[in-house]
Amino acid sequence: MLSSDVIKYVAVPVSLAVALGLIRKWRSRNWAKCTSNTCLRGKTFLITGATSGIGLETARALVKRKARVIFACRDIDKAKKVVAEIRTECDGGELIPMQLDLASFTSIEKFVDVVKAGFYKIDVLINNAGVAIPLQLDQKTKEGFEIHLGVNHLGHFYLTNLLIDLLKKAAPSRIVIVTSTLHEKAKLDFDNLYVEDQIEKAKLGKRYRHNPGYCNSKLMNLYHARALAAKYRNSGIDVYACCPGFCYTNLFRDVVQWYHYVILAPVAFWYMKTAKQGAETVLHCATDYRLEGHTGKMYRNCTEYRSTYRFSKGEENKLWEVSEALVKARRPI
Fold it and tell me: Across the chain, what does the average pLDDT equal?
């Protein structure tokens, strides 16, 4: 027989754990879910960064809906492993792993050549992949661009432009660009587009609450979506930007230290979604038929989101022009 003291010491933490679990479950009920369950057989979806986090959960949900999914990933071996795992879970669509390094224009061009040789059309392009690297590491792409600018924006900018013909053939088709509400913290300076000033300060020990390179790239993503929507408004291609919300993924693995988990535990418990929960808004933008024609909008929690950023058409046009020039030059200018 257990003593009353032992029972008390066991019962208290167990009760607390159950209570916290119920609170977490109640909280998660406020997070919207994609209500579209349409069969996607015959539809081809291309997702960048589909081997982990939100991209993986988006791909898994699409496969369950019988879609053909191209896993465009930097690590092809990891992509093949993920595809094999999903095949054991889902008796659904077709899964195709393909190698794509968004930090290399050459890799993007080779990838698009293979896609065009194997597919007549792309129904939905989901630009999901992204990096968040500490500024003091001063990482660059193969062409020498600052890593956030190069991967999060220019890589997807170039990829999208090269795939437009396949999207037109699938019309009505969609482009879904994963951004973040952190774009509201951004400030584009075309004289310091590579955030060189901030990188130098970071190397000297300055700490930024919000990584300027990452925030700027998320604003560029949103401007890219808005510019694409305007450019292809009457082509049958709809463009949506979306923010998955505060999610537990490995995106910030190079930034987060062990003590951050302790400090942020209460915040994470209340606000942080799982990758699967974060993927719901991406799925909403990629599959919900009710969004057709509402091009150029941003969504969060499966509803339209009104950004506090003061967008400028002049800034939008200049970013497009600069991006085109950088891709053409294939080097920082």
Answer: 88
Is residue 184 in some structural domain?
yes
**pLDDT the model gives residue 246:** 77
Other CB atoms within a 10 A radius of the CB of residue 2 amount to: 9
Q: Which domain holds residue 234?
A: 40-329
The CATH number linked to 286 is 3.40.50.720
* pLDDT tens, position by position, 252-265: 555 554 444 444 44
Classify residue 8: in a domain, yes or no.
Answer: no
Task: Give Cα separations from 321 to 73, 163, 224 (angstroms).
Answer: 28, 19, 11
214 is catalytic: yes
Looking at the structure of the chain, the number of domains it has is 1
Kind plus residue range of the DSSP H or E element containing 184: none
pLDDT at 125: 98
Can you tell me the mean pLDDT for 97-106?
98
* CB distance 67 to 45 below 8 Å: yes
**Active-site residue (options: 158, 194, 214, 240):** 214
The answer to whether the predicted template modeling score (pTM) of the entire model surpasses 0.90 is: no
Asked if residue 10 belongs to a domain, the reply is no
At a CB cut-off of 8 Å and minimum separation 6, what does 238 contact? 172, 173, 174, 175, 229, 291, 292, 293, 294, 295
